[in-house]
Hints:
By secondary structure, the chain is of the alpha/beta class.
Amino acid sequence: MKETINGLSVFLEGNSNNKSIIFVHGFPYDHTMWQAVVDELSENYFCVTYDIRGLGESPAGNGQFTMESFVDDLEAIIIKLKLDKPVLCGLSMGGYISFRTLERIPDKFSAAILCDTRSEADNNEGKLKRAAAIKRINTEGLAPFVRDFVTTCFGNDFKKNNKDIFEMIIEKSSDFDPVGVKGCLLAMLSRTDTTANLGKINIPTLIICGEQDALTPPHLMKEIFHKIKKAEFVEIPNAGHMTPIEKPGDVASAIKNFLLKAFK
Ligand code: MLT
């Protein structure tokens, strides 16, 4: 079922009486990156996905986004759907939103799942890369940037064995509103560092990382794992940065096992 909340496209699957999980996608993708995982979880969990403002079906408006406005959007969805202590699950940019959400409104969640992400803010080199990406989109259009960026996200196995799906993903993201994509780049560029809050996260937390993740590699995610009190770490073999698309079965199994332990 689809709903519009705060102008955002929100998608609901499963029985709303079950424990809810709210999924926050990465950049430059949309809610469908979680679909194969949601298909495996929605029998036992109420799964909420949405398109982050400016991406997928959620309109870009003026493109003036910040990490704070992304957290405001997430909170608005939780309030509108009356989700009772949902599990928060974010990947990469969705992880940045999740880390800041756990800093701002920690009491709203019962568990967290953080996939292929980092708690640090962009360093100078990272900020300059974002600025160069915006300049490139302004001069060349969105498609060349999307192709290069998405190519770095996926592991070699997936790119070799799933050429059609890979091309479809690139095509879909290339059709997004460039205003929204650039707004996301600026929001990521200007986000705060949430590393100091990791030690304060006091809910069961699952850290998932693709073995071949070139953007947020396992050694980085292990540092996050060591800083969170009730954390568990799962590495997904033969996967890059986009674990829920590349290895949905492995990711769904890791989430199922984790939630069974967390809520037994
Ligand atoms: C993502 O997958 O969301 C991006 O890699 C995040 C980023 O560009 O930092």
